[in-house]
Amino acid sequence: MARTLRDAPAVLRESGEVQFGSFRGGLPRMDFGPIPRGRLWQATHAKRWIYCAVADDSVFAACAVVSLGYAATAIVFALDRATGTMLVDKSALGPGPVASFSDGGVGARRGQFKLGRTRADLGDSGMVVDIAGDGDGSLPTHFFVEAEADGPPPISAVVPIEGGYANATEKRVRRASGEIVAGGKRFVLDGAVLALDHTSGFLARHTAWRWALALGQTDRGTLFAMNLVEGFVGEAECGVWIGDELHAVGEGRFEYRAEDPSQDWHVTTTCGAVDLRFRPAAVHSEDKDMLIVRSKFVQPVGAWEGTVRVAGETHVISGVPGVTEHQDVLW
What we know:
single chain; globular
């Protein structure tokens, strides 16, 4: 049975209650109102991020800006799809103030990161990333991506968090244009698809999930995008887009070799709608142990193939770019 999405609420908190649920459409300002915890607890449990990825036949490029409250990080990478080569793969870590976020509600969210030679400006209108070349001989990196104003409806979720308080997330997909410059190569985006992930909440000290993103088209040339997660927010944020239609699906299930994530992944959903294989071309990974923060993070970049069955139709997926992810963090 197909999962039904409610219309997104006008406010996140109404009559003293957080509006929990799985929604069609963008969320209002991600403001939970008064939190029944002390200021220190809020300061150490508040997390926020924006992830932006763009893909076409030639390139897959992504950037994330993450605030832990007391610290902030940015991740930037770009894959040359023809050669399977990572043209740039960098991360930067700094104190909390190097990341900033603004939230004007639906279609008006933005995150920025400024530290040393790294600058990132991500939002609903697109992304701009600049990394100057280093003395070690690395080349400058520049992403300039503009998102179309119109597109299919986002999928959004607001969920209670065990060990935390609540989390709000919005995933949107848009056609996009622009250019990616990385590793001495320049790509003018052609038929590109852009994905945006806005997430904000008061999370548990230990948080873990697996995630999948696909951006491309079906065998019939129709827009196809997918957002799946296992753990964390769970089924509430899981959906696929076929053309201008958003279809809610069950929670993701991920089979892969944890000891070697560069091998194929098999990803399905509890509802049976999705049955896809993911073939990594390269892997972005980070292992951090900074006493109060410990994380294991892998995000392979590659291509999807298989079938997606929604609304009584079967769609064949082949060579669609995207990522998978395993994240396990103590923050």
